[in-house]
Amino acid sequence: MKEELLKKIKEKSIIAGVVGLGYVGLPLAVEKAKAGFKTIGFDVQESKVKSVNAGENYIGDVVDSDLEKLVQTGKLSATSDFSFIKDVDFIAICVPTPLDSHQQPDITYVKSSAEAISKNLSKNTIVVLESTTYPGTTEELLKPILENGSGLKCGTDFYLGFSPERVDPGNAIYKTKNTPKVVGGIGSDAVDVIAAMYEAVLDSDVFKATSPAVAEMEKILENTYRNINIGLANEMAMLCDKMDIDYWEVVDAASTKPYGFQPFYPGPGLGGHCIPLDPYYLSWKAREYGFHTSMIESSMMINDKMPEYCVDRAARILNKNKKSLNGSSILVLGVAYKADIDDYRESPAIEVINILNSTGAKVDFYDSYINSYKHNGNINMGLKEINANTIGKYDLVIITTAHTNVDYDMISKYAVAIFDTKNAMKKIKNREKIEVL
């Protein structure tokens, strides 16, 4: 099986399948098709299937013309019919892995995808999970489902492994194609075949881990590392506020050290699909082994309380102008979870808005990339534009996303008061109205 699959990879005769056509899956499907592999995307959302088959792009990291050309030439197509799984040789699972209402891993999408695949799995197929999850998912959850549903045996009839997605939406340098990959498989043959497939698609190195669990854990480490260091930055910023010290100047000074220091910055909280969620996956799994992840959980607590802290700071700023939160008009600038993207998954700005609303404040938002967002089943509409007249009507402007296409000079000139949680206005010389986190 190994030699046959390696030969097909070299000849580009493998048919690739990608389950889940979101921020991870669609860019991956496009890169596989661009590398010369016929690729089929699978998704339960008909809207995504129709968009792909029409050559209409909906993901920022995908080039519109690339998608259109691949669809027109027949290299890429999409379907919601999972019976076509039987026609593919390589399957990448790229579905969401959110937290449930109890802050525990919700692997419903992974499980349902595995069950759908198992019913149509053919011999000599490679299955790779890319969704971020807890260590052990591939071997403890995926493997039994695929074997029981298909009647095939892992390692003999099909290969199974894990390769964590490393998508950073909006990153101008690192995209799917040039970001190094980590792969871990059940058995050395699986690792070799999975690595060969990614090497045929990407312009980057592939690290071969000795097991899926190693690859699963390294992904958790990547994001937990960032969570902890951002938690440190947030706690330092809160302390600096009490001591009347500018944290942003502190971190700039520390960054002059050429070794042993990496700058991390505070903000209104953590957003995106991975960094706010992955530590919860790890702490949940650690409890199975009677292990308490005290440092990790402390950083999670700090980061989780940042939206509330930002609202408290906003209240203090308003108090200086003899205003209370209740009844004040506030403009929140930015609901995307990071600068220059249209993704608001787990965005802390939304929590800031929710808390402000609960105090009786009159809150509007403007985001140059997002006209509206959906939260708890409700559609929240933003301002279509901002100008001097608009800005001047609010008692306070809170910057929660540092989009670079915003006219901060105009805001600094006409706003009554500004709370900049992202230091987006660092180049503004007149700082009289500006307070930073």
In short:
39% of the residues lie in helices and 14% in strands. By secondary structure, it is an alpha/beta fold.
What this model shows, in words?
By secondary structure, the protein is an alpha/beta fold. Helix content is 39%, strand content 14%. The protein has helices at residues 2-11, 25-34, 46-53, 64-72, 108-118, 137-150, 188-199, 212-242, 247-254, 278-287, 294-304, 306-320, 348-358, 388-392, 408-414, and strands at 16-19, 39-42, 76-79, 90-93, 125-129, 158-162, 181-185, 206-209, 329-333, 362-366, 372-375, 378-381, 396-399, 418-420, 434-436. An eight-stranded mixed sheet has the order 3-2-1-4-5-6-7-8, with helices on both faces. The chain has a five-stranded parallel sheet with strand order 10-9-13-14-15, covered by helices on one side. The chain has a two-stranded antiparallel sheet with strand order 11-12. The relative contact order is 0.08.
